[in-house]
Amino acid sequence: MAESDRIPIKEATAQDSEIETPAPVAGEQRPAGLPTPKINKGPTHGLWALTKRDLRKWYTNPYQLIISLIQPVIWMGLFGKALNFSSFITAGAGAAGNPAAVNAALLGFFGTTSYFSYLVCGMLVFIVVFNSAFSGMSVVWDRRFGFMNKALSTPVSRGTIVMAKIFQSVGRSLIQAVVVLFIGIALGMDTGSLSVGGIAGTFLIIFLVAMGLSGLFVMLSLRSSNWQTQMAIINLLNLPLLFASNALFPVKIMPDWLQDVVKVNPISYCIDAIRQLLIGANGTYALWVDFSVAVAFAAFFSIVGIVMSWRLLSK
């Protein structure tokens, strides 16, 4: 072999020492002098990977997205259009031929002159409630199919696993809320008060309430491995959360005891803010009150979910 073809051993070794060497296989002796690789144990390690995994299962299945949108579309297209409150007021108050009187009555009753627009704002949160409820089902299926044990065997923290479930649910909720808003506009929602700031504020408060609701349902599923139990919890909480709010009707027409329930339901504050931001409706509360409740709701259940995962989330 020619002298020029010989490999400079010392130079190659010096260069290779600068390259990060992978961790050895269990039981394999690590050569002396090589640096020990560092393992990322930060609080956000693996957060994006776990979130992306759950989102991929959703967006690669378009039927799941379509099915999840059927229910709010039915509510808007059938329920929202069938309840023609203008006709009720005209027939009951003898206001035929006087649109101003009808609009004044609707404004005093709903805070807006369009009940359909009033309902669309409620449906934006309706889709968040039902989507967030199924965030806990992801924990149940991961446990049943063995993925949860694998995730718990990695350096990823338990709090990160919980937050990944919350964020994937929040992402799905925001995307579906955008679709529902476009459908509502196509069906006749009042767009006279729409603005960039109003839309941004709407999706900010949807983000907050989605975080709170997802944290709640993930927390309730941490020790569950039975999908039937989780479905029972979803059915137990979903409809009360919806009907004990201002999503469908004004609070003022409800019984006194139900009005007290609506006041402690964080969904009511979210819907109240959305109606003010999107359609310029008269709000029950100031916007800062609505956002304060939404922030507190999101922070409380996110933190509680992480804390409970330290004790309840195990193999």
What does this structure look like?
- The termini are far apart.
- The protein is 69% helix and 0% strand.
- The chain has 14 helices and no strands.
- It is an all-alpha fold.
Short description:
The protein is an all-alpha fold and 315 residues long.
Helicity, in percent? 55-70%
The overall strand count is 0
Provide the residue-averaged pLDDT.
Answer: 77
Task: Estimate the strand proportion.
Answer: under 5%
Assembly classification: single chain
Beginning-to-end CA distance, first to last residue: 59 Å
Structural class: mainly alpha
Shape by Cα distribution = elongated
Whole-angstrom Rg: 27 Å
Most strands sheet: none
Task: Write the topology of this structure.
Blueprint: H1 9-16, H2 47-59, H3 62-82, H4 85-93, H5 99-110, H6 115-133, H7 135-144, H8 147-152, H9 158-187, H10 196-220, H11 227-243, H12 256-263, H13 266-278, H14 287-312
Supply database-style keywords.
single chain, mainly alpha, 315 residues, disordered N terminus, 69% helix, 0% strand
